[in-house]
Amino acid sequence: MNLEEFARQLKRYVNSLLGERNEATRADRFRDFIRKTFPEVEVGSVRGYYPELEKYLKWVGVGQVVKGRADSLFGSLVLEFESILDESHEEEAKKQLRRYISIIWSIQAERGQPYERLTAIATDGLSFIVFKPRSLVSKGPITIEKILLEEIDRVNISKLNPEDAYTWLKRYIITAAIELRPVDPDEFARRFGIGSEVFNDAFKILKKGWDKAKEESATLYEQWEAHLRIVYGVAVGSEELYIRHTYLATLAKLIVYSAYSGGALPLSREELSQILDGSIFRKWRIINFIEEDLFSWVHKVEEGLEASLLLSSSLAHYDLTTVTLDVFKEVYQGLVDPEARHELGEYYTPDWLAEMIVGDVLGNNPYRSVLDPACGSGTFLAAAIAFKKQRIKDLKPAELLVHILENVVGMDVHPLAVMISRATYLITLGRELLEYREQDIVIPVYLSDSLRLPEVVGSTYGSEKIYTIKADGLTLGLPARVAENPTIADATVDALRDYAKEISSGTEDDFDYFKSFMTSRVPSLVGFDPEAVFRPLHRTAQNIMTLIKKKRDTIWGFILKNYYRPIFINKKKVDAIIGNPPWLSYRYVKSTEYQRFLKQLIVEKYGLFHQRKLS
Known about the structure:
globular; tt1808, chain A; 27 helices; Rossmann fold; 4-stranded parallel beta sheet; 6-stranded mixed beta sheet
C-alpha cells in the first residue's frame, strides 16, 4: 500500500470511530483497518490464541492479539480496547492487560515454555499507550501482582500526519527484526559519525539551537569546558566541539531508550522531551542515566527537538535491541580527529585486552569490587559486568543486579565519556537482568576527578567537617556525615534545590522552616545536629537561591551529586583498580594550579619522583 492510499484508509478509519462508544465495534474496526493496511499479519482475539483463558477468567474483555511472523521484532502484541482512553479507562485497561499477560505467561509455564516477549497496548482505536511488561519472577506460573507495565510510548494516530502514523503502526504491528538492519558498529559509525549526512544535518540544526540557548545555558558550556581543561591539561573547548559532544550524547540517549524499550522510537516532541530530560527512565526506576547534565539544553529549544527527531527517524532503520558497546566506542572515537588524539591523550583499549585484564583480576574471585577511575567509554566496566554475569551462578538475578551495581564503579572527568559509559553500563547489564530490579537503581558512573577529592574545611558552626565546591564564586557545601553517605547526599541535594526554588519564588526564608522542610524530604536527616549540619546546609540552599536568581543554577545539582562520589568510594574502598589511565604528560598540563596539585600528589603523597624531575 502506497502512502497516498494509506492516507485515505486512515482518514476513513478515523472518521468511522468518531462518536462510536462501543468498544467491541472500535476493536472490530481497528482489526479491519490493520488487515487492510498490513495483510501479512494475523489479528485475532486473545482467547483464539489462548483458549485456556476461559478457565482463568469468567469474563474476557475486548482483547486482541496481533501475531507477526515467527521472527517479528515484538513477538506478540496484546491490545486492550476501551470506549475512550481517559484516566479511569486507562487504569482498567492496564488491569486487564496485566490479567492477560499473567495468564499467557502462566499458560506458557505450564507448557514448559519460556515467557514470550510481549508488548501491551491500551487503546480506544485512536489513542495508544504502549507498555513493556516485565515479571518479578523468572519462571513458573505468575500472578497479576507480579506483572509490571512500564510505559514506553503514547500517541494519538489521528493527530499524526499519514507518514508518521504509518511508521508508528508499522513499527509495532508488522516490523520484523529481519527487516531491520542489525547494528554493525563500523557501518553505524559511518552513518552517524562525523562527516556523515546524518551528522552534518543534525549539527547544523543543533548549531542554530545552541545560538538561541547559549545565553541561558552558559553554565553548561562553562562547566563542560572546565572539565575538559582537566582532561586535556589545556583549554581545548570550542562551541563546535561542544555541539559534537551534544550530538553524540543525544544519540546515545535515544539508542538506550530504544534498546531498553524493545525497539520503540519517539515520534512526538513530548515523547522526545521525556527521553532527553530523563523522566521516562525515572519512571522505569533508572534514576541517573539521564540527569540535568552538561548537554541538557537540547530538549528546551525547538531546534534541539528537531535534530533529535532527525536522529530518531534515522535510527528507525535499525534493530536497536542488538546494539553493543562497540557502537558507542566507534562513534565516540570518531569525534576526535586522529591527529589530535595523541595530543589530547585519547587512547582506547581493545576489548580483548580489557577482557584479559578483568579475567586476571577477577578470575579467582568474581565477587571482588572494582573501580575504573578514568573509565572513558566504559570498556573495562563492560568487561567486568560481563565477567560477573558469566561466572557468578549462586545469586538470583535480582541479587546479581544489586551486586554488580554496588561493585562495578566508574569515574571520569570527561562529560561525554560519562554519558557514553553510563549507556555502555546499561547495555551490558541487558534488558533481561534489568527487569529484575526491585527498587530504584543508580548507575555507578560519575563525573568526577578521581585524583582530586573535594576540599574539606572546618565548619564555622561546630566541629563537623564540610566538603565544599565553588559555584560562580559562591560556596556550596555538604557536612561530612551527609556527603559520605551517597543515598543521603543525593536526596539532600535535591531537597536543597527545591527549597532554594521555593524561597526564590517568594516563600520566606526561615531556618526552622528549612529544618522541617529538609527532614520531611530526607527523613535520614532527623536527629542530626541543627548547628553542625543544618546551618551549613541552609547556607548552601541560600547560595543556590542566589544562583537561581542569576539563572546560573541549572547544572549544580548534577555537579554536586557527582562531585562527592569519590568521598564515599574513598571511605568504602574497593578490592581492585582496573582501567587504562589517561596518557597525558605532566609537561602538557598548562594550568599552573593543577600542575602544583599534581606535583604535590606525585612527589609528596606517592613519592614516585623527586621534585627536580618534574621541574
